[in-house]
Amino acid sequence: MKTGESVNEYFARTLTIANRMRTHGEKMEDVTIIEKILRSMTSKFDYVVCSIEESNDIDTMSVDELQSSLLVHEQRMSNHIEEEQVLKVNHAGNSYGRSRGRGSFRGRGRGRGRGIREGNFDKSSFECYNCHKTGHFQWECPYKAERTANFVEADEEEILLMAYMENKQAENGEIWYLDSGCSNHMTGNKNLFCDLNESFRQNVKLGNDSSMSVMGKGSVKVQMNKKMQTVDDVYYVPELKSNLISLGQLQETGCAIIIQKGSCQIHDPKEGLIVAVKMSGNRMFQLKNETFEDQTCLKVSVSDPSWLWHYRFGHLNFNGLRALQQKEMVKGLPQIETPSHVCEECVIAKQHRKSFPRESNWRASHVLQLVHSDI
């Protein structure tokens, strides 16, 4: 601190340097800044520094609190008010705040008190650095915000464990076009076939007089009116981008095709109406395929209740289960019977490692008969 420099000017200069050091990656804590300030104060603040070190805990003290305390003493010296302070531990609660440490003025103990008695000076001219009102200091401000700490908090959300069955649709099998100009059922999606003969080969000609190769023929399952229908003799044409159902081929199988009032109805001679498709805006009949894979629900059930409760309690022994049942400690626990065979998982979990032999069965009888090497 320079001679003639005020407390505010010195604090502003010191904090500017500290902030620059922090900007360049230096770790500057408040306790380091406070210790630096106390060591560099001019000689006229010697007794003030001793008072602060005696009556405050430097590790928990903030820079603002130190500045407020030094401003008080600077104001006193500027008004030429000579006041003798005696720092002591007052168990009766007369001193403001809390004070701990050695009673000696030059002692090394650290306390947590403010070391300032109320009523010794007029605080009406001092401005609070927190609310910017006069009459009190920042550390006693009634509007002082609570200190916050940076921490990581993990929100534990409630988890609902459930099982569900997912219906998978084929990527290119969502829409089938009912085409009266198509000679055969055709698709380019191999995944739609439930039965495919890849040895079948043929060529088909398109409307633009180009041809495509047929790489197989098989059956496809299509859900119509919430019922699975099997469409046979479907050509597999890998280059085809759309799925086509030939109305002529359906009629050859005995189905009746009725197109009227913007709807195409397919009637089976045995099942009756199997599907009715409305005409789209571009005068096409699009059958939205809901092709599902065969669903299989796999579950494991235990018929013996003794084994069931043995698994539920983490492989608790059967004597322990019987004790729980006899003392009615578990609601719904049935009569437990000891099974004739042992639990394989329990046997494996309780096995011990085979002990190492104390000495080997064979020992070398002369030099270099047995050589150990690290390769």
UniProtKB/TrEMBL annotation:
Domain CCHC-type: 128-142
Keywords noted in UniProt: Metal-binding, Zinc, Zinc-finger
Transmembrane regions: none
Gene Ontology MF terms in the entry: nucleic acid binding; zinc ion binding
Cited PROSITE patterns: ZF_CCHC
PANTHER family tied to this protein: OS04G0629600 PROTEIN, RETROVIRUS-RELATED POL POLYPROTEIN FROM TRANSPOSON TNT 1-94
Protein's UniProt name: CCHC-type domain-containing protein
